[in-house]
Design brief:
By secondary structure, this protein is an alpha/beta fold. The protein has 12 helices and 12 strands. The chain is globular, with a radius of gyration of 20 Å.
Length: about 350
């Protein structure tokens, strides 16, 4: 296969973790006989510095014409002054909208070797395997915004069509898993959540009768994610709730640095990124965890390129690297020495090569 991947390293630790994912993609291509053209473009705060725009026209064009987009992380204190007119996050929201990637998939599972990395008891996190589907292009992040000297307003708005399409995506994923879908809202307070619950109920009951649907308020979901996370299979929710809950759920696995994400729309092109931020406090120190970014590359192989065997090979290599003790500072075992970002990438590459040519 020949494919072109737009690469947006971004800010902070973004370039460091992206470098390891690119090494892994290159190794996968060599092992399985593919050709991946990796087109690196400026994005985020670094693009503001060089181009005055977090999403320059050439970057957007590269993303719209690529088979997939791989992103590191964006943002940092340098671009976060309260009065700033241009921010890195504006580029990310514009990119998601332009690509039409309305369903953000965030899988969360607990690697047995990393049970000690979580602050929760083993009996709580053992066997956790859940999937968040976060609506990504609507809600309060994209609503009308107003501010004057006395007040600020952020409008949360959803249409029936926006809710229908992400619920359908989540229900289809539930059909391929354990056929359980939890819809998360705040329907006791918010009108948008009442529309969400009604629409979700109608779609799942009519089109996915084999999927068991439950509705849950977001505050209850936040509690149950910590109290009984094994009970969840697929969770679908709106933009802001999904943003917050998936960061909470990352603590089940032990670290934000472990978790990948895939943002998908109607076609195969997707946007893939780890769920962590740019972590400017550790940027340039070579200690960032690259596993979430490498696993995002595996999701890219699976969802945008249709390369399931290759995705499984990369995911398995990450798992074996962790089993072998390649653990960065955020997940290091008590009393052990952490490895560097590069060392973690090397461990994955060693596992990929150890399994031969397929």
């Amino acid at each position: 296969m020949k494919a072109r991947i737009a690469v947006l390293a971004g800010d902070g630790i973004g370039p460091e973790v992206i470098a390891e994912a690119l090494r892994c993609l290159t190794a996968v291509a060599a092992r399985f006989g593919h050709r991946f053209e990796l087109q690196e473009e400026p994005f985020g705060g670094s693009a503001i510095d060089t181009c005055g725009d977090p999403l320059p026209a050439r970057t957007l064009d590269a993303c719209l014409t690529a088979d997939a987009v791989l992103l590191g992380a964006i943002g940092g204190p340098k671009w976060s002054a309260p009065g700033a007119k241009v921010r890195p996050e504006q580029g990310l929201l514009r990119l998601r909208k332009a690509l039409g990637v309305y369903a953000n998939l965030r899988p969360v599972s607990v690697h047995p070797a990393l049970a000690d990395a979580s602050t929760l008891k083993l009996e709580v996190i053992s066997g956790v395997d859940l999937l968040f589907v976060r609506e990504l292009t609507g809600g309060i992040y994209f609503g009308e915004k107003r501010r004057d000297a006395e007040r600020a307003v952020d409008v949360c708005e959803y249409s029936v069509a926006e809710i229908e399409r992400v619920v359908r995506a989540a229900a289809r994923l539930a059909q391929s898993r354990r056929r359980r879908l939890s819809s998360i809202d705040k329907s006791n307070v918010l009108e948008t959540s009442r529309l969400w619950r009604e629409t979700c109920e109608r779609i799942v009951r009519a089109e996915f009768p084999d999927v068991a649907l439950e509705h849950m308020l977001v505050d209850a979901a936040a509690m149950y994610l910590i109290r009984r996370p094994r009970d969840f299979d697929v969770l679908v929710t709106e933009n802001m709730f999904g943003d917050i809950l998936t960061d909470e759920a990352s603590m089940l696995a032990g670290s934000l640095g472990l978790l990948p994400s895939a943002s998908l729309g109607e076609g195969p092109r997707g946007l893939y990124e780890p769920i962590h931020g740019s972590a400017p406090d550790i940027a340039g120190r070579g200690i960032a965890n690259p596993y979430g970014t490498i696993l995002s590359a595996a999701l890219l192989l699976r969802h945008s390129l249709g390369l399931t065997q290759e995705a499984e090979a990369l995911e398995s290599a990450v798992s074996r690297a962790i089993d072998g003790g390649a653990r960065t500072a955020d997940i290091v075992a008590p009393g052990a020495r952490p490895c560097s970002t590069r060392d973690a990438g090397d461990a994955v590459l060693d596992e990929l090569r150890a399994r031969g040519s397929g």
